[in-house]
From TrEMBL:
PROSITE patterns given in the database record: FE_B12_PBP (PS50983), PROKAR_LIPOPROTEIN (PS51257)
UniProt entry keywords in alphabetical sequence: Signal, Transport
Keyword Cytoplasm: no
GO BP field: iron coordination entity transport
Protein name per the record: ABC transporter substrate-binding protein
Gene Ontology CC terms: outer membrane-bounded periplasmic space
Organism (species): Arthrobacter glacialis
Domain annotation Fe/B12 periplasmic-binding: ranges: 77-331
């Protein structure tokens, strides 16, 4: 049976008063995780956030998921707490002074790595180093309630902090919030308009109505990504259909290697969060069931870049996904 997957909340409270430099588990917000009471409305609620200030005008007050934050002048020393915020600021031409690493195959998403060479790291997304953040003397911290809700007070004592509700499927609303925070409202809208034009062009150029299945191998689990995910939103924007078991308002559904046949569709795009040998991907792909999938037989099962398709979480990653989809689907 398929079951909806709950997001793991992994960043934690600072232990003691300055006694520990890093955070443990439990600092996120279960209400905005998959299955939480505020999960499905995160995009609509994020769209209500922002500022009444004129475009580019400072000082401004930003209404955000953590409350209200005053920003006196355009930020120049920005720390980001996740890959989505990293993609967002780089897309707006701002190189952050501090970034987290991931536990994926690459510590920094490969498509962004060359843009942040030499930038200081602040621990991992799951284990932030608050002392390292403070040492960078940022004038803005960008994060989310999902990752670091219970750290908001500590982070705000370091620098003005602006939170989205959660990364993932509200990626467009999150990007607009970052644009408003940085005084780059027009640029963020222009970038999203360009993305939408590319999505609509892809829809016109794809022949027929192929259904797309998304499979991600992770340590101890296999996920079929659904509508409430970055790639789910992109596929919807491009008018590309999903198999019934992924056409659900969840982040993902979870299956086992024994029922990998439930991943079959016209096209199967798959990746691993980490080494394919340790995520189980290699064993499944080399196993007896995989070769019997219709998509595999048709040559329509393709390995994709996990860094982009699942860790991008912003407009640069989204446009690369559209380019990949065009290469794969447009003959």
């Amino acid at each position: 049976m398929l079951r909806a997957v709950g997001a793991t909340l992994a960043i934690g409270l600072l232990a003691g008063c300055g006694a520990a430099a890093t955070t443990g588990s439990g600092a996120g917000n279960a209400d905005v995780a998959t299955g939480g009471s505020k999960f499905t409305t995160a995009d609509a609620e994020t769209a209500k956030l922002g500022t009444d200030a004129a475009p580019g005008e400072f000082p401004r007050v930003i209404k955000h998921a953590g409350g209200e934050t005053s920003i006196e002048k355009k930020p120049t020393r920005v720390v980001v707490l996740d890959t989505g915020e990293l993609d967002d600021v780089l897309s707006l031409g701002i190189t952050p002074v501090g970034i987290p690493t991931t536990e994926g195959k690459n510590s920094i998403p490969s498509y962004l790595a060359s843009k942040v060479e030499g930038v200081a790291t602040i621990g991992t997304i799951q284990d932030l180093n608050l002392e390292a953040i403070a040492a960078l003397k940022p004038d803005l911290i960008l994060g989310s309630k999902l990752r670091a809700d219970k750290l908001y007070t500590q982070l705000s004592s370091i620098a003005p902090t602006v939170f989205s509700i959660r990364p993932g499927f509200p990626w467009k609303e999150n990007f607009l919030l970052v644009g408003k925070t940085l005084g780059e409202e027009k640029q963020s809208v222009d970038i999203l308009n360009d993305y939408q034009a590319q999505a609509e062009a892809l829809n016109k150029d794809v022949t027929g109505d192929p259904k797309i299945s998304l499979v991600r191998f992770m340590p101890g689990k296999i996920r079929l990504y659904a509508n409430k995910s970055l790639i789910g939103v992109i596929l919807k924007d491009a008018g590309l259909a999903r198999p019934e078991n992924q056409n659900i308002d969840e982040l993902a559904a979870e299956i086992s290697a024994e029922n990998i046949d439930q991943a079959d569709s016209d096209w199967v795009f798959y990746s691993s969060y980490g080494d394919p040998a340790t995520t189980g991907e290699q064993a499944v792909v080399d196993g007896p069931i995989w070769s019997k999938l219709g998509a595999v037989k048709a040559g329509n099962a393709k390995s994709i870049n996990d860094d982009v398709w699942f860790l991008g979480l912003g407009p640069a990653g989204a446009q690369l996904i559209l380019a990949d989809l065009r290469t794969l689907l447009v003959k």
